[in-house]
Amino acid sequence: MSLPNEEGTKAQRSPSTIRETPSKATINQDPLIAKGLQKEQYIGIFSVAVSLILVVGFFSRKVEYALLFAAALSIVLIAFFLTV
Question: In this structure, what are the phi and psi dihedrals at residue 10, rounded to the nearest 5 degrees?
Fold first, then answer.
């Protein structure tokens, strides 16, 4: 952080100053940032959740109903708290 000098302008930054905001070119070329995979992630999460409920329901109907009730209640509460 540079302090203003007597004239009210900011002092020059040294070349070793760390930039807080990376440049646009660095962001676009970062191999660790997944681009365009959000839809596939949602599909995968949804299919894992549905398969988990089906497998549990195969063994116990009461647990399946409890999981479905908890999922429905969670969706309703998330929607309610996001709109409030």
Answer: -80, 145
